[in-house]
Specification:
Elements (H helix, E strand, L loop, with lengths): L7 H7 L5 H15 L9 H30 L3 E5 L9 H8 L2 H10 L4 H5 L11 H15 L4 E6 L7 E5 L2 E5 L12 E2 L5 E5 L2 E6 L5 E6 L2 E13 L6 E11 L5 H5 L3 H4 L1 H7 L12 H29 L6 H4 E6 L5 H13 L4 H11 E4 L10 E3 H7 L1 H21 L4 H7 L2 E2 L5 E3 H7 L3 E4 L2 H11 L1 H6 L4 E3 L6 H7 L2 H11 L20 H26 L8 E6 L8 H17 L8 E6 L7 H18 L8 E6 L4 H7 L5 E4 L11 H7 L3 E4 L5 H8 L5 E2 L4 H10 L3 H7 L1 H12 L11 H9 L5 H19 L2 H13 L6 H13 L5
Parallel strand pairs: 1-2, 1-11, 2-10, 11-12, 12-16, 16-17, 18-19, 18-21, 19-20, 21-22, 22-23
Antiparallel strand pairs: 3-4, 5-9, 6-9, 7-8, 9-10, 13-15, 14-15
Helix pairs in contact: 2-3, 2-5, 3-4, 4-21, 7-35, 11-13, 13-14, 13-16, 15-16, 23-34, 24-25, 24-33, 30-31
Amino acid sequence: MPLQSVKKSDWFTNNKEMTKAALKLSFQMNRQYTLSKDQYTATMHDNFMALSMAVRDRIVERWIKTQQRYHKTNVRRVYYLSMEFLIGRLMGNNMYNLGIEKHAADALDELGLDMETVREQEVDAGLGNGGLGRLAACFLDSMASLGVPAHGYGIRYDYGIFNQKIIDGNQVELPDEWLRCGNPWEFARPENTVNIRFYGKAHTTHDLKGKAKHKWVDTQDVFAVPYDFPIAGYKNDVVNTLRLWSARGTEEFDFDYFKSGDYEQAVYKKILSENISKVLYPSDDISQGKELRLKQEYFFTAASMADILRRFKSENPDLNNLPKQVAIQLNDTHPTLGIVELMRLLVDEYDFEWQKAWDITAKVFAYTNHTLMPEALECWGIDLFEKLLPRHMQIIYEINAYFLREVALRYPGDNDRLGRMSIIEEGHPKKIRMAYLAIVGSSFVNGVSKLHSDLLKEKLFKDFYEFYPEKFNNKTNGITQRRWLLKANPRLSTLLMEKLGDGWVMDLTKLEKLNTLKSNKAFRERWMGIKKQNKESLARYINASMDIKLDPESIFDVQIKRIHEYKRQILFAFYIVSQYLKLKQSPKEFIYPRTFMIGGKAAPSYHMAKLTIKFINNIADIINHDKSVNDKIKLIFLENYRVSLAEKVFPASDLSEQISTAGTEASGTGNMKFMMNGALTIGTLDGANIEIAQKVGDENIFIFGLKAHEVQALKDKGYHPQHYIDQNPMLKEIFKLIHSGFFSPHDHKLFAPIIQALTHHDPYLVCADFESYCQTQDAVSKMYLNKDEWAKRSIINVAQSGYFSSDRTIREYAKEIWKISVE
């Protein structure tokens, strides 16, 4: 049917339908009438936009109905506050959740377009850095799919984290212009703009009855403009909302400066204000960066608190009932200022008595901790905080005084305990301990794996656990199978659908039925055939993007995660060097070919992490150009690791590197993604690795290294890395090569900081775990020689991955923290 003959009313009716014909017509109508393009003038990006709009049209109706239902039934709602939402590309996920992926692909095919080519036009949303943001994105998917009335809140970063380029082996950061060509999934909501205040003074007066009245005056203001993203549940017509805040200047243009010819100053205030939502995690090495980071945290939490109260008041007249209708989850300490802001609003704006306001606030919030390392706990200097948020500083002092009075009553005379538990850390300078504030101001505190939660109670927050034992609980992280299996691994998903039906998409424990198939030889052969196809697909991608040919018959041995010393990419790199040396010196001892892949970004100001990237790339340069070994081993650094690249890597991986020092990783979710896609894990007993081992059995995972209590015992008695270097000839040889400049011929001292850190300090026990790691890697190679046995173990890992669904995690949050029933 010619588009000209289609009535607009028919178009709108058509947009509700999920058929191939309806999607084809929606695509054509959006391309012509929304984008003003036809099949001759449209670019491939135009085609992506037209298809996105066709998908979006089907989401919008469900979105509106969902929100209307929430409003009419006055449901209890969850508000998930996070600095990051690493949502990646959305079109594929949305099509799968609507159940229209095949119809859309067929519609494009009839128009002479390829679905994969169109989908590749989408840019990953630059809204996160690593596990924290990806966890938040998985949780949004699960909350919508389980029908939990939920809203996400964060920042709409103009440039996100950064695009990583590898130039001469070094990480170079480039702006992540993810919004440059527009974003079809967001809707601006300027009518809900919130005015956010900074600086100024806090004035206190008293009324005739002597009651204190607080005013925050002479402030510098910024507008927070909301942008809404629909989050569709899986085939249940539920669409929740992710609301992201963008900073806009309250003064767009100063005409007086313009008239005088000072054109830059005319827009200076606008530019300064809008810096708040420009980039995720500005460098905090300088004072301006620290101030901007604190501004970001207050900006999005204050805007979110205002929005939460606006929505609550539209349905409920009495703020005393806030805890009955609202549950606010703090994803790490970044949104902790929401506790202080709610207190300010209740006391200053709504005239609540302080004690009543505190009773309400403490019932509303819950806090998820994501780190075991004391140095990673967020603290803010009081001088900066008081300058930026003077009224909030007063409130924090009041909260702390109230809390310490309670502690003193419980433990009379224990001044050391008061000092340890104070929200204000005495010192030069004084600091606010944001994790302590989050604990005191929340009704629940959770870790994200069993080991992590136990260590929080036993070590990091021991005093608080003794004081508030009822607050602490565990919620082991999870991932959404709809993104990381159904969408990311269509070949394996097709096999699972054929053998098990589609029930696993909403109940991942149904994959346990695979255990009955692991002994079927034909099934195992098909299973390994799918893995090989996935490896061939990744090999083609790497050959096209990096001009490096990979052997799909080799073990794809992968470590992809944020580059950090505690994640021990250096340990992996040392093992790779050991295999290079083995091939050069004792080739008969080499067991099986491997393709090593490492990917991840280093924080721009983290020198050691960036040096690690350079070290890995220099090793790769030597190995990949040495014809005597490069048919046996290759090393690839995966540039600009992101969600869309991860979706290619996980299905193709054989071995998952989860090698952090025991007792340092809170949980990890990459380990779950590898497991769900049939990779076996080599790792320490750290984070969620412990629970993975419990689920699959010790024989189906490769565990090495010191346990958490052994790590602590070794450090307590005095750890001397040189002792381990002297005892291990291979490790000694690796250090000798680094020192000689073998990996840096143009600058022999380039990697001296790595040598110095490992020989004198080695805080993450690379040297102590090296021998155990190498021995376990040998066991991996020997096991892989028996492909049939490897297939069985791969099947078992997928079969036992059900516990690690974010659906299970969200059900636990809903029942035990948010007090919301889930269907």
